[in-house]
Amino acid sequence: MGSLKRKTPEEPSTTTTTTSQIQQHECVHEVSYPHGYVQASSSTSDSSQTKDPAKKFPFTLDPFQSQAITCLENSQSVMVSAHTSAGKTVVALYAIAMSLRNGQRVIYTSPIKALSNQKYREFKEEFSDVGLMTGDVTIDPNASCL
């Protein structure tokens, strides 16, 4: 099975380190689609134009985030794999908001307990009905977002 790949350059960002040095970063995100997939034109596939978005962000989404969200709104499967701090959680937050908007229950998993606790606190601020289940802690196991 082949895939179509399109490299999407990320806007160069400037970060300040503790020594006040400026570093320029440039990443290339690769977006892959299944063989034979035809991406709809932006005028027909842009979910923000067809209905109210499940969540609005106070910043401009990266192209890979926009494409993933468009696929989610079109009921397509999405897998996001990117380096640390690339913005994967933005897509997850949108998927959670979309599921809750549609009256579905959400289960978010993470590989370590510390991250589960961190996401629980963040999600609790974002969505009110949030629970947590780890090996030794259970909080509101019947919540809409667990």
TrEMBL record:
Record-level Gene Ontology MF annotations: ATP binding; helicase activity; hydrolase activity; nucleic acid binding
UniProt-listed SUPFAM superfamilies: P-loop containing nucleoside triphosphate hydrolases
GO biological process, one term: maturation of 5.8S rRNA
GO (cellular component) term, any one: nucleus
Compositional bias segments (type: Low complexity): 11-20
UniProt KW Membrane keyword: no
Pfam family, one: DEAD
Signal peptide (residue range): none
Region (Disordered): 1-25, 38-57
Protein name: Superkiller viralicidic activity 2-like protein
Alphabetized UniProt keyword annotations: ATP-binding, Helicase, Hydrolase, Nucleotide-binding
Organism: Trifolium pratense (Red clover)
Domain Helicase ATP-binding: residue ranges: 69-146
